[in-house]
Write a structure and sequence with these properties.
Blueprint lengths: L6 H8 L12 H9 L3 E3 L7 E3 L1 H8 L30 H22 L10 H5 L1 H11 L13 E4 L6 E4 L3 H13 L2 E7 L6 E7 L3
Antiparallel strand pairs: 1-2, 3-4, 4-6, 5-6
Length: about 210
């Protein structure tokens, strides 16, 4: 039976980038994870180390602190879900961050898909539905509802593997639906019974 990772190895795994799976650690720690099949060394310079699908499964099995989502650590990319908790910040810097995170997510899809496909969501996205949907929207140029400005809002729902997406008007809602479908999600429009507000119910496509 394969031994579980040591405490030091688990700390390295837990500290992996939440989107790309990029690792930080000593050469000995990274080499040990590679030997165990939990990480791989990228063949192209600068030869960074990334989690393998097995490494991602271990990371996703580790409960995240409840404060991590609303108050992300400084320097860690956090998708903007739309709301007062998403300060606008520097637009140019944010654009670079979003583009990098989206490209990293596509690479994660490629690495974890049996056929190397990037047109459907991966395991990380299914485990982090709100953040994944928000990243797909922001990467396509949609504006989140930050600081009182009109824009999209992504919220969790009681349904498994589904998020609710709100937009300021019908045109914006349709545009969000089109973006999510191009990103590998299924999206349908619904109306809240009490408020009559239209919203999208979106879930990751499996095939």
């Amino acid at each position: 039976m394969t031994r579980p990772p040591s405490a030091a190895q688990r700390r390295v795994i837990e500290g992996a980038d939440p989107v790309t799976g990029r690792l930080r650690g000593t050469e000995a720690q990274l080499a040990a994870l590679v030997k165990r099949g939990l990480a791989f060394r990228h063949p192209r310079p600068p030869h960074e180390h990334f989690l393998t699908p097995a490494g991602h499964r271990i990371r996703e099995a580790v409960p995240e602190p409840v404060t991590r989502e609303p108050v992300p650590d400084a320097g860690v990319f956090a998708a903007r879900v739309g709301g007062a908790e998403d300060p606008p910040g520097d637009a140019a810097a944010r654009l670079r961050e979003v583009c990098g995170a989206w490209q990293g997510l596509l690479e994660l899809r490629r690495m974890t898909s049996p056929d190397g496909a990037v047109d459907r969501p991966c395991g990380w996205e299914r485990a982090h539905l709100v953040r994944a949907a928000a990243l797909a929207l922001e990467a396509a140029g949609h504006r989140p509802a930050d600081g009182g400005a009109d824009g999209y809002r992504v919220r969790a729902t009681p349904q498994p593997e589904a998020v609710a997406v709100y937009a300021p008007d019908a045109e914006s809602l349709a545009a969000c639906a089109a973006t999510l479908e191009r990103a590998g999600w299924q999206a349908g429009e619904y109306t809240e019974p009490r408020t009559r507000v239209r919203y999208l119910l979106a879930s990751p496509r499996r095939v």
